[in-house]
Amino acid sequence: MDFYLSFMAENWQRFLIAALTAYLLGSVNTAVLVTKVVTKGKQDIRQMGSGNAGFTNVLRSVGKVPAVITIVCDALKSVIAVLFGALIFSFVQTDAQVLSNEFVNCGKYVAGVFCILGHSYPVYFHFKGGKGVVTAAAFIAVEDWRVFLCIIATFLTVFLITKIISAASIISAVLYAPYTFAFTFIFDYSVGGYSLSYVILSTIAALVIGAFVLIKHKANIGRLIRGEEKKITAKKG
């Protein structure tokens, strides 16, 4: 762990560049922009439906096509941010390939976390954005496809049973850290030669992201407990 703290101190410029770029990209909130275009500037998605600037509220309040555009663009901005973070950290000089891969993954985590923050607290839209579910899912897909497949399987299973997107998102967020630990410890550390510090740091990052998504779903959790959360219904369009 001391090695990683030293690494962070020596490469603070890379962390800053990756974090700032990812945050600014994440701040481009598609839900707000698409809704303004569709309504010709008359409506703000944050003043419609649930008030959340995300895919589900766009689907319920604006329609299918705007929702598809929202989910695609929110995923794309996350992918771009994470790949840029990986690129920045790929230039760190090291003789060990495994260590080089760890550095690249660190760059992905930094970019992913700040892209999600940007989506939820966009600097361009008075720091009021979405809950970061799609952005987080896209980040996970780029960071670790194994964990992503488990998350998607979990999400789809819960959604098919409940027909409630928030319930699927919450369960997926809860399981993100356990999935991350399982794969990094069993396959990366035990078999692949990655360091235990990397397993710990990646699990902590997953815990932070999962906890953030849960916090953003606080109101949904309350409605789920009371049995008031609506099942997904889409408008035509």
Kindly report how far apart the N and C termini lie: 52 Å
Fraction in beta strands:
under 5%
Q: Order of helices and strands, N to C?
A: HHHHHHHHHHH
Question: Strand tally, please?
Answer: 0
Helix proportion: over 70%
- What value does the Rg take, in angstroms? 18 Å
What would you call the shape? globular
Mean pLDDT: 90
Task: Name some characteristics of this structure.
237 residues; 74% helix; 0% strand
Could you provide a short overview of the structure?
The chain has 237 residues and is mainly alpha-helical.
Protein model, in words:
By secondary structure, this protein is mainly alpha-helical. The protein has one domain (2-226). 74% of the residues lie in helices and 0% in strands. It has helices spanning 2-10, 12-26, 30-38, 55-61, 64-90, 97-120, 133-143, 145-162, 165-189, 196-216, 218-226. The longest helix is centred in the N-terminal third of the chain and has 27 residues, at 64-90. The radius of gyration is 18 Å and the shape is globular. It starts with a helix and ends in an 11-residue tail after the last helix. The mean pLDDT is 90.
Write the layout of secondary structure elements.
Layout: H1 2-10, H2 12-26, H3 30-38, H4 55-61, H5 64-90, H6 97-120, H7 133-143, H8 145-162, H9 165-189, H10 196-216, H11 218-226
Helix pairs in contact: 2-5, 2-6, 3-5, 4-5, 5-6, 5-7, 6-7, 6-10, 7-8, 8-9, 9-10
